[in-house]
Design goal:
The complex is a heterodimer of chains A (about 325) and B (about 270). Chain A is of the alpha/beta class and about 325 residues long. Chain A has 10 helices and 14 strands. Chain A has 2 domains: about 170 residues, Rossmann fold, CATH 3.40.50; about 80 residues, 2-Layer Sandwich (Alpha-Beta Plaits). Chain B has about 270 residues and is mainly α. The chains are: A alpha/beta (about 325), B mainly alpha (about 270).
């Protein structure tokens, strides 16, 4: 029997797949196909996105139904991982390794020769702007650098399928833009990319095709614009860490789309609520470097409310 | 040229895992603690040589003390403990550190992952234990002067027993680590309760690991007294065969279970 991935098969396919952990159902009777290009896996925290991605990445088997990766069962088919890159969500590393050792070591596990491992590792680090930090230990990387190192290990072996779990979480605006551009470029090259996020605006920046997931079920799949229209009714919240949060606040203070702004007691964090995320991110891009923005998060309460609305419809 | 239609072959995959794991295992806090534990006989040897030797009866020699340390410190207590702390953590560390994902999302057989990690364990623990035994031997045996050269073959035999002790207990506790929820506690119970039956008469000692290992030690002190510390001695050839077979069986079972088990990493 051939163990090669099946030619012409859908890159990622869920057929009535369920997964439960003891009495908790994380994914419930999901049937979905992910075609080539970029697809956003969108849902609030706890919706089942990570379970969906881990099933797709063959990290564990479905409790019921089937999950196929390149036409082969995702669980128990290690050969398909030649063509799959997985960027997990946890901020976990072998801290004593340098960025270069980490990537080269994982490339050796993908079967590359020594010289090619180094070459590919350097190229991947360069792609995520970590070339200068290649000889630094991962334990000394900032959160944003660690996030980029995870992305680098996922793309270093040039996979056809990329599974990215919250890939821009914790990145500063410049690197967020860099990663978004990279994902879009890879999508245009015909790779199949599934990106999970709980932030609608983040997914919207990457693709128009989304899978909406909530309480372990796929609610809808299709064009993001329909969801986007719903979001206009709901304010979008962004929390930023900056060297100059007050200077950053001054840049936003006159913008009509800003609803509220507040500072954390430590004086480094600024939380902004906006009615127009597009305009907000445009202004932010102009001031991010000057104000020293190093981290950015968006809580998902706004998305949660959209999902509540969708479920109630 | 890579063949992407198949998983990476076992040997290069295990070697790659070994390369990733070795550095982290060797330069860890665990290794520091274990190095201190394994350094105790060196301290004992120095104290004996410098302070005690002149005040004890002539028949209590440094070489006899070395024999006791081999049997009672290394083979019976320290090396099994070292194996327990490393073996149970081989996969548990990757699960708790959430780094297992990187290994199981590569085109390698899971058997190669555990084998590579086990090889890294063996290399690390041998690096920690061998110098301790060699140093202790030379500090204590050199008090006998002329017998030193004649005792060196015993040292090599002891080093072999040391390696076998680390391998068989390492394999056993790796099995505990992939099979049990509380491997450390159960491992301690195994070492310090179950293994005591090695001192009973009859067939019972054959159901322990330590009875087979102690039978491999060559330079048992003559006469009564210290020799009784070694308990029942089983045939050497049989002991060697049993220890090797146990290592293969324990490690084989651990690999079999790890290859089939799901590890759900908590978010």
């Amino acid at each position: 029997m051939s163990t090669a991935p099946v030619v012409g098969a859908a890159p990622i396919e869920f057929v009535r797949a369920s997964r439960w952990y003891g009495p908790v159902i994380a994914l419930n009777d999901v049937t979905a196909t992910v075609p080539p290009g970029v697809t956003g896996l969108l849902g609030p925290n706890g919706a089942g996105k990570s379970t969906f991605l881990k099933l797709a990445a063959g990290q564990f088997a479905p409790s019921q139904g089937e999950v196929r990766l390149l036409g082969r069962p995702a669980w128990g088919s290690p050969e398909v991982f030649h063509r799959v890159g997985f960027c997990p969500e946890p901020d976990a590393f072998w801290e004593n390794l340098t960025g270069l050792q980490f990537l080269a070591g994982l490339l050796r596990l993908s079967g590359f020769e020594e010289a090619e491992c180094r070459e590919r590792a350097l190229a991947a680090l360069d792609t995520v702007a970590l070339a200068d930090a290649k000889d630094r230990k991962l334990g000394g990387y900032s959160k944003g650098m660690r996030q980029r190192a995870k992305i680098a290990q996922a793309i270093a072996h040039d996979p056809d399928v990329l599974l990215l779990d919250e890939p821009v979480s914790g990145l500063d605006p410049v690197n967020r833009r860099r990663v978004i551009d990279l994902v879009k470029k890879l999508g245009r090259e015909g790779k199949t990319i599934l990106v999970s996020s709980h932030i609608l605006h983040e997914v919207e920046a990457l693709t128009r095709r989304v899978l909406l997931i909530h309480n372990g079920r796929v609610l809808a799949e299709g064009d993001i614009r329909e969801i986007r229209d719903l979001l206009d009714e709901h304010p979008h919240t962004v929390t930023l860490r900056s060297r100059e949060p007050r200077a950053l606040a001054r840049a936003f203070v006159d913008a009509p789309h800003i609803l509220t702004m507040s500072f954390a007691p430590d004086g480094e964090w600024l939380t902004v609520q906006t009615a127009k995320p597009d305009e907000f991110y445009g202004v932010l891009a102009d001031h991010a470097i000057e104000a020293g923005v190093t981290e950015m998060y968006s809580p998902d309460e706004d998305l949660e409310s959209v999902f509540k609305y969708l479920v109630a419809r | 040229m890579r063949d992407t239609s198949k998983a990476v072959p076992f040997v290069p995959a295990a070697r790659a895992v070994f390369g990733l794991a070795l550095d982290g295992m060797l330069w860890s806090r665990r290794s520091l603690v274990m190095a201190l534990l394994l350094g105790i006989p060196v301290v004992i040897a120095i104290v004996f040589r410098v302070v005690v030797a002149a005040h004890v009866p002539a028949d209590i020699t440094g070489y006899k003390l070395y024999g006791v340390l081999v049997a009672m410190f290394w083979v019976r207590n320290a090396l099994p403990l070292v194996a327990l702390f490393y073996g149970t953590a081989l996969i548990a560390d990757e699960v708790e550190g959430k780094t297992l994902t990187y290994l199981v999302s590569r085109p390698v057989p899971r058997s190669a992952i555990l084998t590579g990690k086990f090889a890294a364990y063996a290399a690390t623990t041998l690096c920690l234990a061998l110098p301790s035994m060699v140093l202790t031997f030379f500090i204590l045996a050199s008090t006998e002067g002329s017998t030193l050269a004649g005792s060196v073959p015993d040292l090599f035999r002891d080093l072999g027993v040391l390696a076998l002790t680390l391998l068989v207990y390492g394999a056993l506790f790796t099995l505990f680590g992939v099979l049990l929820r509380w491997p450390l506690i159960l491992g301690l119970l195994f070492l310090f309760f179950w293994e005591l039956i090695a001192n009973l008469p009859g067939y019972m000692p054959r159901f322990t690991v330590t009875a087979w290992l102690r039978s491999l030690i060559g330079h048992r002190p003559p006469g009564r007294g210290m020799s009784e510390l070694f308990g029942q001695v089983l045939p050497v050839g049989l002991s060697l065969g049993v220890v090797c077979a146990l290592t293969v069986v324990f490690l084989g079972l651990a690999i079999w279970i790890f290859s089939r088990r799901e590890y759900v990493l908590d978010q």
